[in-house]
Amino acid sequence: MPHFIIDCSENVIRLKSADDIMQEVFDAALSTGLFVASEIKVRINPFTYYNNGNSLDDFIHVFSYIMEGRDTDQKSKLSKVIVNQLNRILPEVPVISINIKDFEKATYFNKTMI
Fold first, then answer.
1. What is the pTM for the complete model shown?
2. Share of the chain above pLDDT 70, in %
3. Count of structural domains within the chain
4. CA 45 to CA 66: how far, in whole Å?
5. Superkingdom of this entry's organism (predicted)?
6. Sheet holding 59-67, edge to edge
7. What is the residue range of 39's domain?
8. What is the C-alpha to C-alpha distance for residues 95 and 72, in angstroms, rounded to an integer?
9. Is residue 114 a part of any domain in this protein?
10. Is 108 inside a domain boundary?
11. For strand 59-67 and strand 95-103, is the pairing parallel, antiparallel, or unpaired?
12. What does the pLDDT average to over 54-76?
């Protein structure tokens, strides 16, 4: 269920492959014990054009969407683990951040639920 959508400057995938970056996010999320491996989904969007505070500094931002039910401490740990892991493999990237949003069980629906 968790979805991790990675937005980054295009140069980031020149520093480290998109597959490697996605795998690091996957592994970091799995390491928290909050998710089952078969449910973790990771995608990446490299941007050619962006304005990052009137600069072209490289960046990574992870948008995380998880099913409701985790407490603030669990979500905080997840955020820290992912940012720390990305910083470890890409220390030259000046901006690495994440935010977490909850899916509501009552309003979530997918094809398998038909």
1. 0.95
2. 100
3. 1
4. 19
5. Bacteria
6. 41-47, 3-9, 59-67, 95-103
7. 2-103
8. 23
9. no
10. no
11. parallel
12. 97
Distance CA 88, CA 82 (A): 10
Q: What pLDDT is stored for residue 91 in this prediction?
A: 98
* Core vs surface per residue 75-91: b (16+ CB within 10 A) or e: bebbbebbbebbeeebe
Q: Give the residue-averaged pLDDT of 4-8.
A: 98
Is the torsion defined by CA of 79, 80, 84, 85 positive or negative? negative
On whether residue 51 sits in a domain, the answer given is: yes
Q: How far is CA 5 from its chain centroid? A: 5
Structure tokens at 68: 């409701």
Residue 112 counted as domain residue? no
Q: Which single residue is written with the structure tokens 């995608």?
A: 43
Q: Tell me, what's the pLDDT at 1? A: 83
